């Protein structure tokens, strides 16, 4: 029995070390993210021709509203709204063309966002586009978004990520999801940019030098996480991604636990995929001096925060009667550290909104959703698992 007890003790310590890594990494970047970034510039001599891409999978209602809004966007140069249509109805396609958008239809046995964008970029080659913007089907560009993106390219940038914020916070779950979005922006985008590192791409509100983006997509392969794959490819090329913290793209937030679970299933599957794919190479790249690539690898080792919170809560509870592994003070310290990390990563304006305190009661549902998502990651490899959207206006307080 002594051997069994020793193994159990070792396993608890291994888990403790892993959770220390998570908590220290997140706490460090939470503190760094408190420092300001320079204001973005939109002044430019040359206004580039832009392709605004809307990859769209079976979304026949919201895409029409998004395109109407995008076509009204004010930009000092020329831009074209391009809908990459996968599974749209013919009536929707006709409406989009009548509105003035270009429609590129794609047909795949197994749909992925990466393959759809690859096909579209190859179709657009040779038409004078200098960079491409990628938006989700429900996204709305903030004021002067394209002018700011152009300003970043004027400064020699090749890849740009804007600040994605909540378009709606009209339910407790949507408010919680909005908080989560801002925590991600703080920990994985703003803080990294403060240190001169590239922010993590988020899948929308991002822009690329046209030729470079086309080259990336032609080598992306089939993956459920095209944004993470692009992250690694760009890091390997040693191209620094710019982060525009004061330039906004509005994104619909999830209103219920079922959709939350579906979306997180795809995200976790993507993270596991790239952990397996790049864990070893990350250390190889570190020895070659590519800190950026190594940092991207570290991100794949991080556990989802809702799962970390749930796990640490359980470990604190068990530490009062379990003699194995670290002491209860150890687990309590980690739990408090993670809670403080999240508290300082949420924007101050949220604390003045009473809805936030109501949204906190949704945390147990979100935790359970993450557990279900973790157990369902195999589904993400078999289907696209697109997140459903609806047409939502931008709330005034979010502008």
What features would you describe in this structure?
- The protein has 399 residues and is α/β, with parallel strands linked by helices.
- The protein has 16 helices and eight strands.
- It has helices at 2-32, 62-71, 90-99, 113-124, 145-154, 172-194, 210-217, 226-236, 257-287, 291-301, 305-318, 328-345, 348-351, 354-359, 363-375, 377-380, and strands spanning 50-57, 79-86, 102-105, 131-134, 140-141, 159-166, 206-209, 241-251.
- An eight-stranded mixed β-sheet has the order 3-2-1-4-7-6-8-5, sandwiched between helices.
- Strand 2 (79-86), helix 3 and strand 3 form a beta-alpha-beta unit.
- 43% of the residues are buried.
Secondary-structure map with pairings?
Blueprint: H1 2-32, E1 50-57, H2 62-71, E2 79-86, H3 90-99, E3 102-105, H4 113-124, E4 131-134, E5 140-141, H5 145-154, E6 159-166, H6 172-194, E7 206-209, H7 210-217, H8 226-236, E8 241-251, H9 257-287, H10 291-301, H11 305-318, H12 328-345, H13 348-351, H14 354-359, H15 363-375, H16 377-380
Unreliable stretches (pLDDT < 50, length at least 5) are none
Computed structural class: alpha/beta
- Mean of residue pLDDT? 89
**How many distinct folded domains?**
1
Evaluate the radius of gyration. 22 Å
Termini separation comes to: 62 Å
| % residues in beta strands | 5-15%
For the biggest β-sheet, the strand order reads 3-2-1-4-7-6-8-5
Tell me the helix content: 40-55%
Listing every helix as H and every strand as E from the N terminus to the C terminus, the arrangement reads HEHEHEHEEHEHEHHEHHHHHHHH
CATH architectural category: Alpha-Beta Complex
Q: CATH top level?
A: Alpha Beta
What is the assigned CATH homologous superfamily?
A: Spore Coat Polysaccharide Biosynthesis Protein SpsA, Chain A
